[in-house]
Amino acid sequence: MIVNGPRKIVDSNKTQILLTAQKLFSEKGYRNTSIRDIADRVGTNCSMINYHFKTKENLYIEIIENLWPSLDYISSDTETNANVLLKDFVFKSIEEAFNNTQLIKLCLETKIFPVSEKTDSIIKKMTEKHFSHFKILAEKAKYSHIKFLYTSIFALTIDIVSQNAKSVYTSKDSRNGLEELLRYVETTFLVQ
């Protein structure tokens, strides 16, 4: 049992570093956040962060990868209406954006101020995978102008999520914003 003790402490430290760095990167940006800032906020030293992640970029990459929702759930259910599957995918994606505003902020910052080719590549792959799933479902549902539809829905989502992140909303108000957006997307975009 003693063998598991130190491992749990190490995992707990790594988790605390990830959560703190995620918050600081989201608040201050990648370039304006130093390893020292993260270490000071966690209450550890820089060598502990370097032990777990080697570089600030690796820490950033792990945060982005951990925040991104799983996109591997596309249903192969041929019994369910394709429109229902598309709506489910869009709604889950929008809810994920509302629940992970930090991911939106990190990805937007990375697009404006690239961190590195590696981070750009990861975000590009995530975006391409998300669009690919959307496209498969939209084609099954017989939608046209799929790229336009996708861009319209998710640009609007990003704009509203970004506005909400800047505002001082209570969680109830934020949830109402989500419900309004879902209704708008359903009645404006997901109709044929």
UniProtKB/TrEMBL annotation:
InterPro entries: Homeodomain-like_sf (IPR009057), HTH-type_Tx_Regulator (IPR050624), HTH_TetR (IPR001647). It holds the Pfam family TetR_N. PROSITE patterns: HTH_TETR_2. Residues 34-53 bind DNA. Keywords: DNA-binding. Residues 11-71 form the HTH tetR-type domain. SUPFAM superfamilies: Homeodomain-like (SSF46689). It comes from the Bacteria. This is TetR/AcrR family transcriptional regulator. It comes from Chryseobacterium kimseyorum.
